[in-house]
Specification:
Blueprint lengths: L3 E6 L8 E7 L11 E4 L11 H11 L5 E10 L6 H17 L4 E7 L2 H10 L5 E4 L6 H8 L3 E6 L1 H4 L5 H6 L5 E3 L9 H12 L3 H17 L1
Parallel strand pairs: 1-2, 2-3, 3-4, 4-5, 5-6, 6-7, 7-8
Amino acid sequence: MNKFLNLHTHHLTNCPHTHEVYQLSLTEKIEPLPSYFSYGIHPWEVGNHNFNKFSTQLKKYSPNPGFVGLGEIGLDKTCDKDFNLQRDVFKKQISLAIELDISVIILHCVRSYQECIQDLKKLNYTGNIVIHGYRSNAKVYQQFCRHFSTYISLSADALNTTKMLTLIKEVPLNKIFLETDNSIETDIEENYKALSKILNLDLQTIKKTLETNFTKLRNS
């Protein structure tokens, strides 16, 4: 029986029927580490942490079999952090991903898709991009796909927004993940049911495809 997959969450439930990719915070110390986790400097946190210490910790985490990717990292024009500083830290993290052969970046991108594409292209990142909490349109997704192996991860908000229905139907299911992000009320199973209804596919097909997506992402 295929499990549910929560590709990006800030709150572990330890549900036996769900694989959860936990967003490990920069100051968090968990022993043992979660079965699956990501680690990176969020654009809201740039300037709050010593980059050298972060780099040292990432080098310890990245060989761990539970490490899924560098993230969430990216750019956000709606937060109060200086945008030039955000880009500087973003580019440093991309360079680290290349140095450490990290094949997955979990991308936080708000009103800055073109800048994210520019920085990833300029540094010649050739791994996979997972745009978490995706809320843009098919055109932006296709722009990413022209340059990178790109997945989108959808939260409950996106699945329940009318304007997102066209996008969801246009993106191949083998390029989609689901997530709860920072919500403690959302059950990932409800996201699966919503996607199943939108695509008119049975729940088991959704579960099997997303688990296959995860396996492919992990093995790339």
